[in-house]
Amino acid sequence: MGEMSIRSIYPPGVAKEVMEKLRSPDYGGVGKLTSFPIFHRRKDGEMIEGDLSAALIYDEEGKVIASVGIFKDLRERLGIERELQKTQEALLQSEKLAAMGRLTSQIAHELTIPSMEL
């Protein structure tokens, strides 16, 4: 597929952070990165929100010769999650207003003024 520098597709400083995580045992084991939220720059310059999984490739002597990564585009999923959150917030607000209406109705019922006879 060809070679490219990791620095050309990630924002400044991110390539170094990815390589540090790949060399750490805390993110899937040394030589592995199981999941890393990241923005990726397309050839046209558009930034895409996604998730990166990566691994180091070693030669027979155990020397790192390359890295490989898989970037998952999460724009659609994250958009759906944001819409769901907005809908949930609207539903919660609607439930609050309905509860307030029921409470107001009960209070009004308790405060009815008895009719006065003359």
Task: Pick out its properties.
2 helices; alpha+beta; 118 residues; three-stranded antiparallel β-sheet
Short description:
The chain is an alpha+beta fold. It has helices at 14-22, 75-110, and strands at 32-41, 47-58, 64-73.
Largest sheet: 3 strands, antiparallel
Regarding quaternary structure, how should these chains be classified? single chain
Poorly predicted runs are none
Number of helices: 2
Estimated radius of gyration: 28 Å
Mean pLDDT: 84
Q: How many DSSP E strands?
A: 3
> What would you call the shape?
elongated
Report the structural category. alpha+beta
Q: Could you give the order of strands across the largest sheet? A: 1-2-3
> What gap, in angstroms, lies between the N and C termini?
98 Å
Helix content: 25-40%
Percent in strands? 25-35%
Order of helices and strands: HEEEH
3D structure, described in words:
The structure is a single chain. The model has no long low-confidence stretch (mean pLDDT 84). This protein has a three-stranded antiparallel β-sheet with strand order 1-2-3. The longest helix is centred in the last third of the chain and has 36 residues. The protein is α+β, with helices and mostly antiparallel strands. The protein starts with 13 loop residues before the first helix and ends in an 8-residue tail after the last helix. It is built from two helices and three strands.
